[in-house]
Structure prediction request, 840 residues.
Amino acid sequence: MPDDPDFSAATREVWDVIVVGGGNAGICAALEAVERGAKVLVLEAAPEPWRGGNSRHTRNIRLAHEGPVGPLEGSYGEEEFFSDLLAVTKGKTDEKLARLVIRRSAACLAWMSAQGAAFQPSLTGTLSLSRTNAFFLGGGKALLNAYYNRARDLGVAVLYETPVRHVAIERGRFRAVEIEREGRRAAIAGRAVVLAAGGFEADLDELERGWGPAARNFLVRGTPYNRGEVLHDLLAQGARAVGDPTQCHCVAVDGRAPKFDGGIVTRIDCVPFGIVVNRAGERFYDEGEDIWPKRYAIWGRLVALQPDQIAYAIVDAQARELFMPSIYPPIRAATIEELARKLDLPVERLADTVARFNAACRPGRFHPTERDGLSTEGLEPPKSNWARPLRVPPFEAYPLRPGVTFTYLGLAVDERARVLGPEGPFEGVFAAGEIMAGSILGEGYLAGFGMTIGTVFGRIAGAEAAGARS
Amino acid sequence: MHGPELDRLVAEARRQLEICNACRYCEGYCAVFPAMTLHRAFSDGTLVQLANLCHGCRACYHACQYAPPHAFAVNLPRALAELRVASWESLAPPAGLGRFVQRRAGATVLALLSALAGMFWALASLRPPSGTGFYAHLSHGAMVAIFLPAFLLPLALLARALRDFWRLVGGGRVRLRHLRVALAEAASLVHLSGGGQGGCQFEKGDRPSQARRFAHQLVFWGFVACFASTTSATIMHYALDWPAPYDFWTPPKLLGVPGGVLMVVGGIVLASLARRADPELGSPAHRGGEAAFRVLLVSVPASGLLLWAAADTVLQAPLLALHLATVLAFFLLAPYSKMAHAPFRFAALVRAAQEREAAGTPRGAVRASS
Prediction:
């Protein structure tokens, strides 16, 4: 493919706007720039079937709105949106940028629809999001397909399998990107660049720096192409960093999931209805602290702190219908002892853990969808809700591993999406999406907010980059 | 419904739907996914029901984060298409005949040629002493003697197959309201609309298009008009003592001519869309059989229109033989050809309406946010 005519033509051209990364933020930037008359090239590291980074695994976008609009019910004002963000980030957010994203999000629905995006009512079991989040018909990959079709119609050039190895910035001004294709390097010149290449969650070496050898046992929920190369290249050139470099968003996934790209179907939802033990057969955290949507994100980290980064969620037959079906069959046994043998856990220890848990359960009303206060007594750690003894065979277990979703380290930007260097913003260098989200989302996660940041900042970056060419 | 191939197709559909059921991103596209969420485990009957509920619009494939080259290799349109046709093959007795016709284009050609030979023989040896129009070539009585069984036998076989299907999928007592819902869905082909995104993603890769839905509508309403044409002629013949030939301003022609044109145009468009579509997203094994069916589907009204145009010329007799042969082949093959999709699809729509009603709500189990 080095002789691909598109490719050789692309290297001879001086592009108005080069977009690095073909996920949601990058493609939004490309659309915004091409609509302003810019000549736009998108460089996507992944092969075409895998294009779109982690956006292909998303399913909705969080949008502020006054009154019902499209698939969104009720209204969701700036203040409520911002306070939701404050709650999950514990204040780790740049208020100015956060409010910019929230305010601009109100215009996204109409813009997205005009680009060919289609929406659907909130999915089964996600009624709690029907007011705040607009669901893409078919999910994030379908959204990206619509955007790519639109981009092609408008004349945006896209090169797949073309990772950017270096962003050449001379005297504070963007000159070119150095790409690699089929083992050969080449430079592509441009007047402005939009960096939308994601975080480094697929780079296990880098994760190991923050997490130690434990990171080797992490599974990456999304694309294997987010290796942080562009992010680290910019940081090495003096770009200002934001976000904790050691932290990543990590949920509990089925331990049998593939190393990369398992996506949403590998998530485990049964934790609140049973117990979770580590390799030693011991419980280590309150499984019933809160409803699962509010707690599932902490379990990745909890499992990461256990020996060998593995844990086992154990439920009995009473729980089977209470959670979403899983793609991997549970490990099943007629007795706890047999289950321990199948899981290679210390038999007596597990039997003792379950016996002590069962003895600490109290009678009361069990209610699976709300905090029912059915709590253990005299048990450490306690189980604060849904504490029902495990007694109805067959007993079923799911292995849990930490599944990394995204990283927090990013590039600092201003409200024009300009990447900030040691002496103010670089000229012609913009960033959008996960690569700069750490400014706004310093901790935790808010459903659909990554897509909001990507769409709003993608559009800002695309418009600014198109303006920077003159 | 058994056999090594069916077992394999059932197992593959189950494997894929278990992944879908843990994801559910495609809920908005069609009836298959909301029906799927009502189950935690999939019995063979449920899988056959979902396979027949699928209209093959392919939207879910293009939206799927687990489609090949992903290791999960989810290609639901194909898995359901393969199981769907295999279910017709095994439900319409004798099973071997369905396999032959659904998979081999030659089977339809063979049937058409045999019917043509038979018709020429009938025209040559049963020529009536008198008669007008095409009754000059073959008497009304002879036509009834040939076509009444050729019409009723496939209907009886299909009825039997539907009864077995209904048992297999665990269908309940059919109420008028279930039929009303299914009729509305079938008549509007709402499940080829891609959940409001502007059609299916069939012939232009991942770009939605209404072409297939519109072309299918032409064929469907054309077929209904042709059927009404024949019915009106039957009524005129027996009840009003008004035998053919009919001139243009009579119900048989006013319904039959436009109906035939719609079927020809729609059928040709459907065939051209199918040629452009990716065979890997359907059932490759059934591609030849489907293509031959489309030819047969177009040849019935096309030969009928030609026959009308050639009235009172020397071509009338051979065109009459051709037209009657296409009609004969079309009806006799109905339980074994792609035509089987119509009754099975309708039954699946009725069953889906029942299931939705029984569930009270299309919403399934609780899912955490992401």
In short: Chain A touches chain B through 46 residues (CB under 8 Å). Chain A has a mean pLDDT of 94. Chain A has 13 helices and 19 strands.
